[in-house]
Automatic annotation (TrEMBL):
Chain residues forming the annotated DNA-binding region: 24-43
Start and end residues of each HTH tetR-type domain: 1-61
Any coiled-coil regions, as ranges: none
Phylogenetic lineage: Bacteria, Bacillati, Bacillota, Clostridia, Eubacteriales
Presence of the UniProt keyword Methyltransferase in the record: no
Domain of life: Bacteria
The protein, known as: Nucleoid occlusion factor SlmA
Gene source species: Clostridium oryzae
UniProt key word Lipid biosynthesis: no
PANTHER family linked to this entry: ACREF/ENVCD OPERON REPRESSOR-RELATED (PTHR43479), ACREF_ENVCD OPERON REPRESSOR-RELATED (PTHR43479:SF11)
Signal sequence segment: none
GO molecular function per UniProt: DNA binding
Length: 202
């Protein structure tokens, strides 16, 4: 393991111990057993280290999602549902999620959302393209459509940005399901799986 990886794993460990907010670059260096100068060789600041941790966490999570759908001989709609199912199984540790949602870390939080979108959108775009080839979808711009599709989930439904009731979340997902079903000319009910874990409340 090289020093850059050691620094990232050390910061990750401190975040899991809920020490991310209070630790300094010196603390990270001490915990990692390396000189402070070595950290500044790889990273300009503590925030930059955290950016690298977020990238590592989400890349690992999304790589597992891609592996899961690549190993299945199923159509595009089934792959899209499986992608959401698998993604939901890999929960980010509460201490890291809490750090992301602190007001002073808003910029880092936004970067993490952009990271998710950048990593996931090519996978969703490939699924949309497969759906076109399977005559399930009609889509002239799969990458851009995937980005718009994921933006709603990454930003509109992020609890650190908006506070919605369960009913409001359900209605937004219901609207998105209808919007993308019609926008992709998908068979009726194709995107109902997005609503399945939310109950409509009076």
């Amino acid at each position: 393991m090289n020093k850059r990886e050691i620094i990232i794993k050390t910061m990750y460990k401190l975040l899991l111990e809920d020490k991310g907010a209070s630790c300094s670059v010196s603390d990270i260096a001490k915990e990692a057993g390396i000189g402070k100068g070595s950290i500044y060789y790889y990273f300009k600041s503590k925030d930059e280290i955290f950016d690298a941790v977020v990238e590592h966490i989400y890349k690992e999570k999304i790589d597992k999602c891609k592996e899961a759908i690549d190993n299945k001989q199923i159509n595009a709609l089934e792959k899209l549902k499986l992608l959401f199912d698998v993604y939901g199984q890999y929960i980010i540790e509460p201490s890291i999620d809490s750090y992301l949602h602190k007001q002073q870390n808003a910029a880092i939080h936004q970067k993490s959302l952009a990271q998710i979108l950048n990593l996931l959108s090519p996978i969703v775009a490939d699924i949309f393209s497969e759906g076109v080839n399977e005559n399930l979808f009609s889509c002239e711009n799969p990458q851009e459509t995937a980005e718009l599709f994921l933006s709603a989930f990454c930003f509109l439904l992020d609890p650190g940005i908006f506070v919605w009731s369960d009913y409001q979340v359900f209605k937004k997902i219901e609207a998105m399901s209808d919007l993308f079903e019609k926008g992709l000319s998908a068979p009726k009910g194709s995107f109902i799986f997005l609503c399945e874990k939310f109950k409509e409340q009076p």
